Amino acid sequence: MRTFCVAVIVLSLLSVGQPAPLTCETLMKPRDTEGPDLTGRWFLLALSAEHCITTTVLDVLLRPIFVFDITSMDASNVYNNSIKITIDGHCLEQSKMFFYKDNQMFEVDSNNTALGNASLFLYSGCPDCIVVKRMDMIKALILISRRKVVTAAELVEFETQARCLGWSTPQVFKAEHASENCRSYHDIPRQEDEAIMQRIYRKVSEKATSMREKIRKCLIEFWVFVFNTVS
Question: How confident is the model at residue 21 (pLDDT cuts 50, 70, 90)?
Fold first, then answer.
């Protein structure tokens, strides 16, 4: 009897220490608050998409590193997003403007006119992360953070959100390898450009070869998805 009582007490303590798993209903809700100050640097840590094509292509492309530097503009709630994309130690940079309010984000043009559909900021248990649900032509769920690495529990929560949507297994990016000194493609002399592109092409080809079975399965899933969508 004493052993039984001890077991009950231990199980009770364990149940108190383990929070109940979040439901899809909770994970799919918009943030309860307006969200963090968006200005500053953010890192793309993981991405899921409506189908596997997007994540598979990013995997083949050597899992590029995305860094976002966001600044506020003169117009209210309008921001500039300076995006740095690093592939094989070389960087591409571009800028996009967006409008953000009430947990919704729109890309805007030079006249601050909204473009496309709104992206939603969803619930996240990560204190310095943002989960963005994009509903444009490529539907995607994106995890960004001010940190280069999140905890295993925070990543599992994001993976659960992707499963709630029935979307692809998230592609995880290695933002910890982001470099301040990556070489911009715009600064590469023309005589070096061909050699660099050949090296990247060789690595991408090797990656694609090693992923042949994954790519085949993804293409089958994609065409099934297209067939079901149009039928």
Answer: low
